[in-house]
Amino acid sequence: MTLGSDNKFLVVNARIVTTDRMIDNGWLQVRDGIIERIGDNSVGDAPHDSAYAIVDAEGGSLLPGFIDVHVHGGAGHDFMDADAEGLRAITEFHSRHGTTGMLATTLTASRDELTALLERVSTFMNDAMPFAQLLGVHFEGPFISEKWKGAQNPAYIVPPQPEWLEAWVARYPGVIKIQTLAPEAEGALDYIAQLAGHGIVPSCGHTDATYDRIAAAADRGLRHAVHTYNAMRAYHHREPGTVGAVLTDDRIIGEVIADGHHVHPAGIKLLLAAKGADKVILVTDAMAAAGMPDGDYDLGGLPVEMKCGVARLKDSGNLAGSTLTMIDAIRYIVREIGVPLASASRMASLNPARQLGLDGDRGDLAPGKRADLVLLDDSLEIRRVWVSGNAL
């Protein structure tokens, strides 16, 4: 596929996946990057206008572009140190796999490193982004639990620092979208309220929080849980822990890494049974090794080895992010878990858009929304991707 621009085009003979229905034989019309109209051939033929290029979907499924709220990198680059060329490479790689919007996700690092990332990402966001759009930053850490650090560097773990946040928000308004922390840390509840007050989604992760502590955090504004089950206090029938709170508190949206390595299929089924498809978000947690051959890599200064596509820390064997793409997550959850494609699409597009407050213009196929589109064949292979109406 090559980058190109279609100012006016009409997709016909498509199985169109929207929020509230599946149109088995439909059409979708785009003008200047915006969806103009959607129709059903069973109640009327597609419009005929020679000014619109025709794209024949040949019965394929047309979905809204995927939004990945938890991704560290790909194509050999990591957001923590990627320059403009690296940011372009990451966004291009993931767009080839259906992602049209993403959050540049950090690792636990020093204040200076995190500030430098905000500077690079905010600058990139102000320039033309022809591939997957950087929608902001997800700070994963550094205010996490050392007990559940996972693949995070413990040298930089600190308690919440309210003054850091105020400085970041003042200098980079609107760039930080999510911050993940351990709610049991000293000062964390007040910090969660501070995040919510700035319109940033407070998230729990890498945490040893009890059930009651998560409930108290939700009272202060906690609304998100990163990679549910992974790097968090497990469920016990007398102390349900972080996992029990995430499963049962309707205020919290739970991410899941659906790659067959991070969570057993039964765990994903339990998450969906407890929360429903409206309260679950598919993420990749992809690191620099995504899209690259097996070998040695680095994650936040920690050595990583990837074998057979699975990345692990060399010293502990802990999973070190993933090499997942969003389309692979869709395939896994449809084929292995038995989730309908429409529900999988919702978890990959509309739910993250809503969590970020961006569902007014993206995350669904509807007139007036951005033409961020993914066309799949019957084998769930990508046939074509459009970002704001631009064909890749």
UniProtKB/TrEMBL annotation:
Gene3D superfamilies: Metal-dependent hydrolases (3.20.20.140), Urease, subunit C, domain 1 (2.30.40.10). It comes from the Bacteria. The keyword Hydrolase applies. Coiled coil: none annotated. Transmembrane segments: none annotated. SUPFAM superfamilies: Composite domain of metallo-dependent hydrolases, Metallo-dependent hydrolases. GO terms for molecular function: N-acetylglucosamine-6-phosphate deacetylase activity. It is an enzyme of class 3 (hydrolase). It holds the Pfam family Amidohydro_1. Residues 62-391 form the Amidohydrolase-related domain. Keywords: Carbohydrate metabolism, Hydrolase, Metal-binding. Its EC number is 3.5.1.25. Belongs to the metallo-dependent hydrolases superfamily. NagA family. This is N-acetylglucosamine-6-phosphate deacetylase. It comes from Cohnella yongneupensis.
